[in-house]
Structures are given as structure tokens and as C-alpha cells.
Amino acid sequence: MTDPRPDVDLTAVRTHLTSALLSDALDAQGLRHQCLGTGLALLDPTRVLAGYAFPVTIQRVYDVPAEPFRGLVAALDAIGRDEVFVTATHRAADIAVWGELLSTVCLARGAAGAITDGLVRDTRAVRELGFPVVSAGTIPYDSMGRHEIVAHGVPCVVDGVRIERGDLIVADSDGVVVVPQAVAAGTVRAALDKRRGENAFRRAVAEGMSATEAFATFGVL
Ligand SMILES: O=C([O-])CC(=O)C(=O)O
Ligand SMILES: [Mg+2]
């Protein structure tokens, strides 16, 4: 399996960018539906999660299979440095798809974080590990006998947003934005430009410039 990834500086993304700036840069290209829905939050909202999507496909099961977690361990053994484990559950409300041990494996492999539209568990331990995780909430239920991972590295859809392996995915206290790999480098450049414009706008209005003049001068808001 190839390990596609766009040519972006993840440290610059984590240090200088936000999901909002990236969303603005996507809007400017006509890509106006690249954010996941509301209610998804980082366990530690002071962090920024930025990396390359590593989506998995899950299947609901209603019994413990003969070989439980076969697809899960294969996916964990395949995730690479700076990748983000993405589990689309269609907002399943009765499974924890992520926890402490999965976080520990991913940390050891250099992965950047995990994102799900479902639920997670072991949250105190995951917070202590410092591994960035986004979810819709928590529940103690194990995934064993409730879902199995049946593929990894293939596209998924979360809240109507298609996510492919290698897409840039960024989460912060505002939410989650998905930047398609093909436009990632240009979008990061545009978002850094917008940040410079916002910095100039902020300084000018703090010093008394009117909003009308600041918008006319810097072209951002
Ligand atoms: O079993 C699971 O699916 C999640 C879990 O508890 C862990 O990673 O520790
Ligand atoms: Mg656990």
C-alpha cells in the first residue's frame, strides 16, 4: 500500500493555522463543505490535531467473531507516522471505537491522532497519554462483538465529507476540517496568507481603525 501524503509542513499547520483559517481557504476555492458536523470535540481542546487521514471501514456485528479484532490489529500495524486514524460510525451511539490501548499503539507508531464521529472510552488515560482524540462523546462499551474493522486505507464519509487516505485533517476547539490531498499544499499557503491578513486587521482595529477601513485595507474578516 502506498503512503500518499501532501507536501505540507505539519509543524507550521499546528503552530500557525486553525480549522477556521483552513476552512476559509477551502471556501475561497469553492470547497464549501469540508468540515465535519457539530458535536465532535477533542478530549483536550487546548491541543491541535493535524495529520494525514488514515480511514478505516467498520462493519456492525452482533456477536463476537471467531477471530475478533483481526482488522483492527491489521490497521494498527499499518498506520504510519503523522497519520490520523479515522473511524466513520454514522454517529453510532452504542460502541466505544477508541481507547487507551489503541492510543498507545498509535503513539508508539508516531501517528498524529484519532478522529471518530462515534464514541470513545478510557478518556482519563488517553488524556494523560497526550494523544489527540476527537469524538462525539464517551461510553464504556467495548467494540468487541459490536463492530469489526473490515478495511483500512480506503475512503470513508463522515457527516457527508469524503475522507481519503492522505487528506490533510485538522481538528481544534472549533471542529474538524478535511483538506483534500490534491489541494492541501495550496490551501495551507492560502491559509497562512489569510492569517497574515488577520494579524494586520487585528492590530489595526485594536489601534482604532474602523472595521470598514480595515476590511477595505486588508480584505479579511
Ligand atoms: O477495546 C477497544 O476497542 C478500545 C479500548 O478499550 C482501548 O483501546 O483500550
Ligand atoms: Mg481499554
From TrEMBL:
Q: Which GO terms describe its molecular function?
A: 4-hydroxy-4-methyl-2-oxoglutarate aldolase activity; metal ion binding; methyltransferase activity; oxaloacetate decarboxylase activity
Binding of Mg(2+): at which residues? 122
Keyword Magnesium belongs to the record: yes
Q: Which domain of life is it from?
A: Bacteria
UniProt GO BP: methylation
**CDD domains in the cross-refs:** RraA_family (cd16841)
Report if keyword RNA-binding is assigned.
Answer: no
Q: What reaction is this protein's catalytic activity?
A: 4-hydroxy-4-methyl-2-oxoglutarate = 2 pyruvate; oxaloacetate + H(+) = pyruvate + CO2
Q: Name one Pfam family in it.
A: RraA-like
| Annotated keywords | Magnesium, Metal-binding, Methyltransferase, Transferase
Which parts of the sequence bind substrate? 99-102, 121
- Broad class of enzyme this protein falls into: lyase
- Signal sequence segment: none
The coenzyme or cofactor needed here is: Mg(2+); a divalent metal cation
Q: Which family does it belong to?
A: Belongs to the class II aldolase/RraA-like family.
Role: Catalyzes the aldol cleavage of 4-hydroxy-4-methyl-2-oxoglutarate (HMG) into 2 molecules of pyruvate. Also contains a secondary oxaloacetate (OAA) decarboxylase activity due to the common pyruvate enolate transition state formed following C-C bond cleavage in the retro-aldol and decarboxylation reactions.
According to UniProt, the name of this protein is Putative 4-hydroxy-4-methyl-2-oxoglutarate aldolase
Q: Which species is this record about?
A: Beutenbergia cavernae (strain ATCC BAA-8 / DSM 12333 / CCUG 43141 / JCM 11478 / NBRC 16432 / NCIMB 13614 / HKI 0122)
